[in-house]
Amino acid sequence: EVEMDQQLRPKLIDFHGVSMSKYFTDNWDDIQNFQARPDDVVIVTYPKAGTTWVSQILDLLYFGKTSPERQKTIPIYDRVPFLEIFIPSHPKGTELADQLTTSPRLIKTHLPVQFLPKSFWEQNCRIICVVRNAKDCAVSYYHFHRMNNIQPEPGDWSTFLKDFMDGKVVFGSWYDHVNSWLEKKETYSKLYVVFYEDLVEDSGRELDHLCSFLGLCPSPEEKESVLTKMTFENMKKDKMANYSTLTVMDQKVSPFMRKGKVGDWKNLFTVAQNEEFDEDYKEKMKNSTIKFRTEL
Ligand code: A3P
Predict the structure, then answer these.
(1) Alpha helix locations (H) across 6-147?
(2) Which residues contact 187 (CB under 8 A, 6 or more apart)?
(3) Which of 118, 159, 172, 258 might form a disulfide with 155, Cβ 3.0–4.6 angstroms?
(4) How far apart are CA 79 and CA 216, in angstroms?
(5) pTM of the predicted model over 0.90
(6) Are 262 and 120 within 8 A, CB to CB?
(7) Does ligand 1 lie within 6 Å of residue 235's CB atom?
(8) How confident is the model at residue 2 (pLDDT cuts 50, 70, 90)?
């Protein structure tokens, strides 16, 4: 803990053109040489897009029936290892993933497309990319910075928003991340995209789509059970899903399971910030056909 204390609030570094922090680059060789297995399922997101939500959903779909004790006793970050994380006195994400004996392995990453270990492509793994509108992502990421001491200091909201728009946050530009992952869909058929907004709007429908991508056929009872366990309210009070077991996060500052809504950005963006954001967004996304919903 002492060692950790000295390293909180890391600096942002420029890593091959992407803003990162050392906690996600210090283990780079192991990450790049990571050996995928053909049945691995990768959950890839820009931070705050709904990574934990989809991780929990997949864990329930694959193991909820066969080993229900898993969700009750093992924290989500051990069930679904975070590939690139490497913080002192904690096991590396790559080690946790290597040690998984369950099949398939569920592996989480925030890496931009050009950094994904090549083994996942070679093994033709299924990849689920969760995306969320930029405004809600920015707000959620801001609160996450405030409460999570392994993120750089966010400054105040207007400073953070500017950094977000400039891509000067950990894992780089939302715009580049989302655009390059979505482009990959055109050439890699085992990439499936889920919108956070769609999941909020109709979880049952999205669960069916996910299952058909994964080749799973849960019974109506199993599906009902997943739908109950994946709600915001249930995940918020679930110690194995809400990150309350991690000391680097101060949930008194802001809970990890914060609001779980579409459109919360309206509570933080000023009218002027919103106008500036929209104008900049149009420019940065001008080559994209993708439409995000910022309200339901
Ligand atoms: P908010 O901060 O807007 O509440 P990630 O897991 O990628 O870090 O994303 C975290 C965001 O997903 C948080 O958003 C969190 O509340 C939301 N989230 C987590 N579980 C959820 C659920 N079951 N339903 C809706 N939103 C959820």
Answers:
(1) 28-32, 51-63, 69-73, 76-79, 93-99, 118-122, 134-147
(2) none
(3) 159
(4) 19
(5) yes
(6) no
(7) yes
(8) very low
- Residue 1 CA to residue 266 CA, distance in Å, equals 38
Q: Pocket of ligand 1, candidates 43, 45, 53: which has the most ligand atoms within 8 Å of its Cβ, to mutate?
A: 53
Contacts of 213 (CB under 8 A, 6+ apart): 126, 128, 192
Q: What is the pLDDT of residues 149-183, one digit of tens each?
A: 999 999 999 999 999 999 999 999 999 999 999 99
Express each pLDDT in 49-106 by its tens digit. Answer: 999 999 999 999 999 999 999 999 999 999 999 999 999 888 999 999 999 999 999 9
Q: What is the pLDDT of residues 11-53, one digit of tens each?
A: 999 999 999 999 999 999 999 999 999 999 999 999 999 999 9
The finding on whether 213 has its CB within 6 A of some atom of ligand 1 is no
Tell whether ligand 1 has an atom less than 6 A from the beta carbon of residue 53.
Answer: yes
Q: Confirm if 123 and 38 have CB atoms less than 8 A apart.
A: yes
Asked if 274 contacts 167 with a C-beta cutoff of 8 angstroms, the reply is no
In this structure, what token pair is assigned to residue 16? 């091959």
